[in-house]
Amino acid sequence: MFDGLTERLSGVFERLGGRGVLSEKDIDEALREVRIALLEADVALPVVKDFISKAKELAAGEAVIRSVKPADQVVKIVYDGLVDMLGGEVPTGLTLALNPPSVILMAGLQGSGKTTTTGKLALRLSKHERKKVLVASLDTRRPAAMEQLAMLAKQVEVESLPIVPGQSAVDIAKRALTAAKLGGYDVLILDTAGRTTLDEAMMSEAAEIARIATPTETLLVADSLTGQDAVRTAKAFHERLPLTGLILTRADGDGRGGAALSMRHVTGLPIKFLGAGEKIDALDVFDARRVAGRILGQGDVVALVEKAAADLDHAEAERMAKKLAKGQFDLNDLSAQLAQMQKLGGMEGIMGLLPGVQKVKKQIAESGIDDSVFRRQQAIISSMTKLERKKPDVLAASRKRRIAAGAGVDVAEVNRLLKQHRQMADMFKAMSKDGGKSMARMAQMMGGGDMARLKTMGGGRMPQPDPNAAGGQGLSGLPGLPGLGSGGDAKPNPLSGLGLPGFNPFKK
């Protein structure tokens, strides 16, 4: 999301950073480019005008012209403006009633991802907030809509209201309220019917359901890919329904981000969540500061760490940390690290959350870095016997040919993986001989000991690599990552310096 805007703004600030002193003309030119970038990102014109007007007022002051780092001051002005545009620092979490059940009403057009988002929200409430959740489909018109929600409920392990054929949406809502009260549920999520376009019958039905259910949250689910159409939809719904917040779906496919940047300003409603993928757990809490940081290329390490805390197998991390403390690292361990990386969203998912990636985007593209590299490496390891994974030294030429054939790769790629593994194993062995200090630090981080520290980091700033660590790169508190360092006669690695240690899968 925001790829085009991030690239354009990065170019603007890079040019400013090359100048020691900024004149008013420099600032005016920069803000003009920012304005064009926002318009190209499909941000609504009134929003852009307001943003630039405020930015000019702040940038015209002597504080910027005479600043020690005037370019940084301009970046801060744009950052603060983006945060304000996205909703400021007002908490955007769900408001739940003191006396359960809390009712959440889901509204939106057909095809916006409303039913899937209902399942995602139910999972978040049950898994992260430990709430007892009941979901109910009020969509009596779309074929199999009720069955779809029932299947999603089963998938995320929450209860769904039993389907009674022939009931109206209003009657289902009444039955759901009764069931939620009698069943002792904390949260009831009502998934209303959608339409391909706004129509009076749909709006009247939704308004009647809202009157009966008196929801604590009425959330509009909008497709961010529709750009300003999503903004107009939100405005139309808000005129008829007491909306309390927005959920933008397909945010991962929206390269411009104009809807997200316009929604708050046009509707006055906070964006509560972003749907960031097809997986049932791909629903991110919206945070204006962190999103603004990502737009400006600062990454979002906090989100990466939270994802690691939720998705990584910490029992496996503890086990591996103990092995590494003894200087042991076999191919089973390397395969486990690659699998952990895939859990974090693969290369693309991790890169999107790391700061500084925008500056080396071209190099990354030229290096051919993608998840297929890791999948091939896992395929190579999977083609080995238990003995071969445990003791790579037994791999003679005939064994390598068999493994290459089984994985569908060349023998050269098998040799490359073995060389990388040997370098990593030697590094861990060396680290284990310094009295255990380096490995103790690694064990703490791999076991999650640094999670609390990283979660409290402000502004999405990346932990700096430890220059004293082996290989010149520190672990930076990111457990489970195989690392992407560079060194020796390796092919230049565009990811070095981003705080990810270890080996470079693109070495020759």
Total beta strands: 8
Low-confidence segments? 443-508
What is the annotated CATH architecture of the largest domain? Answer: 3-Layer(aba) Sandwich
Terminal-residue CA separation: 33 Å
Which overall shape is indicated by the principal axes computed on the Cα atoms? flat
Provide the β-strand percentage band: 5-15%
Describe it.
- This protein has 508 residues and is α/β, with parallel strands linked by helices.
- It folds into three domains: 3-85, SRP54, nucleotide-binding domain (Four Helix Bundle (Hemerythrin (Met), subunit A)); 102-297, Rossmann fold (3-Layer(aba) Sandwich); 305-472, Signal recognition particle, SRP54 subunit, M-domain (434 Repressor (Amino-terminal Domain), Orthogonal Bundle), CATH 1.10.260.30.
- 52% of the residues lie in helices and 7% in strands.
- The protein has helices spanning 3-17, 24-40, 45-59, 62-65, 70-85, 114-127, 145-156, 169-182, 200-213, 228-240, 258-267, 288-295, 301-311, 314-325, 331-343, 346-351, 361-367, 371-382, 386-390, 397-407, 411-431, 437-446, 451-455; strands spanning 102-107, 133-137, 159-160, 187-191, 217-223, 245-249, 271-275, 283-285.
- An eight-stranded mixed beta sheet has the order 3-2-4-1-5-6-7-8, sandwiched between helices.
- Strand 6 (245-249), helix 11 and strand 7 (271-275) form a beta-alpha-beta unit.
- Helix 2 (24-40) runs antiparallel to helix 3 (45-59) and helix 14 (314-325) packs antiparallel against helix 22 (437-446).
- The radius of gyration is 26 Å and the shape is flat.
- It starts with a helix and ends in a 53-residue tail after the last helix.
- Mean pLDDT is 74; it is low at 443-508.
